[in-house]
């Protein structure tokens, strides 16, 4: 295995470079979207391969230090369908960790069907997380429980279930037409970059949300409401937020099927009088405010307004108030009335820097 290659490196160059150590049977460079190219070089003799491992590891080629290790699988192996396998998220990876090292660390727990580290498509640098897939669910569970907090390289890693499309039975909602980019984009103002993600009833953390939504664009901020089972993700562009809604709606995150829509962007964005908030498509069925503690996807709420705020008196009878006290009371009373009308105290995630 030869990693950390410059994108301009060719198979002929590697054959010439490694061929100086011993006869080579072949060379294959693998190009994957979002990942740095890597290669497999096959020698005619094991002794030559062992010599290459000691000689070529950390040798500079086109300004990059190559990483050479034993290959864990043949480079020409046909990629198998892993859609029904069990995928785990691995976070807090050291930037120098390569796919073979990640695979080797998780190999003791069972048969690994797929393993990859996610990289920035422009810089090709590691984003600090990856995914490992197992054929058996029990193997994946053991890996999550055993490897969480363990060290790989210079960092302690974090593990959790990764996202995947759920194999759910057909329902009215799942039979509906998939969301389209244009449809979602037009459902909110040009400046809205905030995505609502609901339905994660247990295990909700910022790390889980970031791992699930990070591949769709640069995330500026994440707000997690663990006890309510939802979170808000603010991207740096509306296009990235739109893609996240389209790709993530009705997918599985942390073992739960999530619903995604636009979050409210400002106080000027009107919420539905019934407390529902604007959804991104007719096929998106949103739980009622009562089931979410008075929360509205297009307006962040806490469950005060449905029953009133107990600390606010409706009226003060027989009391003399100074002008300043009267002004404070009027403002407070107005706030109470607004809470009762909207079904929640509004909280808005800031947009932009």
Automatic annotation (TrEMBL):
One of the Pfam families matching this protein, by short name: RRM_1
Keywords attached to this entry: RNA-binding
Family matches, as InterPro entries: Nucleotide-bd_a/b_plait_sf, RBD_domain_sf, RRM_dom
UniProt domain RRM: residue ranges: 1-73, 86-164, 193-265
Transmembrane helix found in the keyword field: no
Gene Ontology MF terms: RNA binding
Domain of life: Eukaryota
Residue span of region Disordered: 259-294, 321-353
Compositional bias annotation for Low complexity: 275-294, 321-346
SMART domains membership: RRM
Protein name: RRM domain-containing protein
